[in-house]
Amino acid sequence: MKKNIIIVFVISLIIVSCKNKTAPTTDKDSGLIEITKAQFESEKMEIGTPLMYPFADVVDFTGTIIPAADGQAQISLLLPGVIDKIYSKPGQIVSKGSALFEVSGNGFVDLQKDFAESSAIVSRLKSDYERAKELYGENIATQKDFTFAESNYFAENAKYKSFKIKLESMGLDVSKIEKAEFYSSYTIKSPMGGFISSIHATMGQYIEPQQKIAVIIDDKSFQIKLSVFEKNSNKIKTGQTVVFYLNGNKSTKYKATINAVGKNIMPESKSVECYAAIDNIKSINIVNNQFVEGEVYTAVDSVISVPETAIINSENNAYVLIFEKEVNPIYYFKKILVSTGRKAKNFVELTEPLPSNKLLINGVYNIQVE
User: Fold this and answer.
1) pTM, two decimal places
2) Residue 354: pLDDT above 50?
């Protein structure tokens, strides 16, 4: 009884093995591999041909998201002053002309006073100049008197225009100031649309003109600053396609285009900095200084290739099964050694032509041949 149980168990293993593996036979005379039509269909095998598939030479890179040179603004004061009000906060979206700060100070009041005084003086000196010019033309006044009146008027007028430009740049109505209707404070406005990256001022703080009080960044100007190793830098050209991903998430990739190639090797990293414009930037959620990784497609060419499912790997060699003939109900294949190259998207490059354009392109993974 025990012997019968062992025999049944062995037979069961053989049956299961036959179901799980295609067991082709080899014709000893011809060396061809025989696969029955039933085996072919049950394993969903497929006969196909090599095709021309595009392969790309790529250069890996790491980089960061940064704004363009004209995509960020550093806010500072024209005059020393005190921060009276802060209308913005970090991360806030602002449009061009939005109020950011309210500023006051003695320097601002003095500038208005000097402008009003200069306006009155210019008016008087202009009258003196025009009168001297008229008298000089009639040979009544001397050239010395005319030159004196002219130089005084021109000098004061230059001072007046300088004051006027400063006040107008603050967004003030200078016609009111000329009438001694002074402002107690003025508003710092955003020079561009974007978001507030940082604020470096507090209420009541005294600020010097050289101090930075805020930074605004236009997120529509974001680009990639990428670093390429020195040995690959000569491969990078403007117009090349960049594929990149964020936060190590390779499942979601985005595109960009190289628009500038650096000409300087960074001494620490031995890399060259290049820049790429991001495609469809409005649809991507990116932030300033974000780390990115990706590839630059330096060359794309179409080569003869086959699906990876057509390759049999054995002892560091690669083989394919060339279709020879069909004699119902048997398919005949010949195993040949092939030389492979690059891989891309489940395709393998063949560096040498095949003796036939028909081969088994699917189902070889279940074939055990020597």
Assistant:
1) 0.67
2) yes
